[in-house]
Specification:
- By secondary structure, the chain is an alpha/beta fold.
- It folds into two domains: 77 residues, no CATH class; 188 residues, Rossmann fold, CATH 3.40.50.
- Helix content is 29%, strand content 22%.
- It is built from seven helices and 14 strands.
- The strands form three sheets. A six-stranded mixed sheet has the order 7-6-5-8-9-10, with helices on both faces.
- Helix 2 links the parallel strand 5 and strand 6.
- The radius of gyration is 25 Å and the shape is globular.
- The termini are far apart.
Amino acid sequence: MVARICLVLALVSMALAQAGTSPKPDTPTRPIKVQVNEVIVPVTVTDYKGRYVSNLEAKDFKIYDQDKEQRLEFFSHDYNQPVVVGFLMDLSNDSRVNWKYYQDAAIDLVLHILPGDKKYSGFLISYANEPELQVNTTTEADKLVEKLRKMKPGGGSSLYDAIYMACMHRQVVEGEPYDPRRVLIVIGDGHDNASKKSLDEVVEIAQRSLVTIYGMSTVSFGFTNEGDANLQRLTSETGGHVEYPLNNLYSDVDGYLSHPSDDGNYALTIGTGLYASEVSSGIFRAIAAIVGEVTTQYILRYVPDTGPADTKQFRKIKVVVPDYPSVKVRYRTGYYPFAP
């Protein structure tokens, strides 16, 4: 009996050993990848008129990490760079006034950025009292357009929670966050009165997720908005910028501000046609600016040569183009190192 038990135990041990070292032929295997602490910096360069400078080479750039110059490991200026774009649509009550214009603008953005090429994918999040993932990551623009056409504003604004959702809770594209690039486009006024997350938290989350944020402000001419400072910080600290399609467009349009009425600044009974034309033109220029920047950025990569990295310490970046002192260089202000 003892001999039989020993024999059974020996056979079981052999079987377990073989199972642990020899996977079944039908079982897919995945190589283990170990990534170094590589830093990726998308960079936009414009001249004094705001036009994109697109003829620079790697040798034209210098990049500094904590004031120490770094050696570029990778440089790219490919117009077909893969990108995943999150469209964040403000459905709060504040967006009611010019809702139709911005609904159309969001649709145009989706159709321009998602042409059907597998290199370009996107997702759609709406936010009012709470954020909602309307369309998960896809290359099919029609899915996003269909949802956008059915949206109606109403409620509060949970912008920060929407950014958190975009960074943490949606289908990730293979290769992220290194390839393709990650972009968020906020279509709203930057106001937040319903989020559980704070502005500081989502700025850090976006920086850790290598996300660049752009904004299309829905604030009208002649109005001030406390949320604008939020949009400015979200975009400037991640390397993006804010477009203001309704700012300073139609101050000279008869019927807008020049003729006060009981209906307020939205009384355009005289200049309605010109008003609509100006708004459409402004939004078109804003769309072109955002699409142009997303598709024409330089991509710089380097491995920090700054000693041991503290994963909780924010490290400042500086990018310069020494031979072209008059150009404007836009990039994210820094990063949080990844754990080894």
